[in-house]
């Protein structure tokens, strides 16, 4: 799960997907295309909305997306077009580019909708982001949980 800062959107997506898959089979992680907040906890508003939904994301720390992530992960979900271009710019070949997907295309196929960045907004932005990520992760988890 990748966003810009790895403190608002992708930590939520990370925690939500982790809560829906078998952790012994599927490894979920998140990162930011920037290193602005590297080493930091998720934003307190993301921690709060996750907690309200019985998900603890306080074990997470922000880190920057690196090109090795293409080798270590099968699927890379990004939140918006800007993340998409930043991640794709680090890909070495088509196989790596094909791993990258806008997360809302799971919910709204081919529409290329973006998860809005809630960083500069109010608390309601985080509730809205939680809801769209929860629906998308439900679809992702239902596909992943069919793998042996
Ligand atoms: P995120 O939100 O990409 O969802 O983690 C942001 C967090 C921090 C900044 C931008 C977006 N920032 O510019 O510091």
Describe this entry's structure for a reader.
Strand 1 (2-3), helix 1 (9-20) and strand 2 form a beta-alpha-beta unit. With 148 residues, the chain is mostly helical. A two-stranded parallel sheet has the order 1-2. The chain has helices at residues 9-20, 44-52, 69-72, 81-88, 94-97, 123-144; strands at 2-3, 31-32, 76-78, 100-102. The chain has a single domain (2-147), classed as Response regulator (Rossmann fold), CATH 3.40.50.2300. The longest helix is centred in the C-terminal third of the chain and has 22 residues, at 123-144. It is 40% helix and 7% strand. It starts with a strand and ends with a helix. It is globular. The structure holds 4-nitrophenyl phosphate. 4-nitrophenyl phosphate is lined by residues 3-9, 32, 36, 117, 119.
Mean pLDDT: 96
The oligomeric status of these chains comes to single chain
Number of domains: 1
How far apart are the termini? Answer: 22 Å
Q: How much helicity do the residues have?
A: 25-40%
| Biggest sheet, spatial arrangement of strands | 1-2
DSSP summary: helix tally: 6
CATH topology (fold) name:
Rossmann fold
User: Any idea what the radius of gyration is?
Assistant: 14 Å
Ligand inventory reads:
4-nitrophenyl phosphate
